[in-house]
Amino acid sequence: MPEIRMRSKNQFTLPASLVRASGIQIDDKLSVSLVNGSIVITPMGPRHHGLSDVMAFAGIAQGVWGDTPEEVEQTLKRDRSTWER
After folding, report:
1. C-beta atoms surrounding 76 within 10 Å
2. Would you say residue 58 lies in a domain?
3. Is residue 22 part of a domain?
4. Rounded distance between C-alpha atoms, residue 47 and residue 51, angstroms
5. Domain total in the chain
6. DSSP-derived secondary structure for 11-77
C-alpha cells in the first residue's frame, strides 16, 4: 500500500500510480470527506460520475431517513405502522 506524508500547510502528494488508476487529471476537482474515521478523496466532475461505477452511488441517500441510528429507527417504525396487513 502506498504511503504519503503530510507536509506543511496540510499538503501531500498522491502517488502517481493512484492518480493514473483513478483517472485524475490536472485541474480536476476532488471531494474530501471523513467516513468512519477514514479520509476519502473522490474525483468530481462528469468524467468521474459514470454509471459504470456503482460506488458513485455510495451515500446517495445519507440522511433521508434520519441523521442518527435512533432517528432512522423512529422513521422506520412510523413508516411500518402505516403498512396494511
Report:
1. 12
2. yes
3. yes
4. 11
5. 1
6. -----HHHHHHHT--TT--EEEEEETTEEEEEE-SGGG--TT-GGGGTTTTTTSS-SSHHHHHHHHH
Range of the domain at 53: 8-81
Q: 80 or 59: whose pLDDT is higher?
A: 80
- Whose CA is closest to 29, among 51, 53, 47? 47
11-65 pLDDT per residue, tens: 999 999 988 888 888 888 899 999 999 999 988 866 655 555 677 777 888 888 8
Residue 68 lies in a domain: yes
CATH number, position 19: 2.10.260.10
Predicted TM-score (pTM) of the model is 0.47
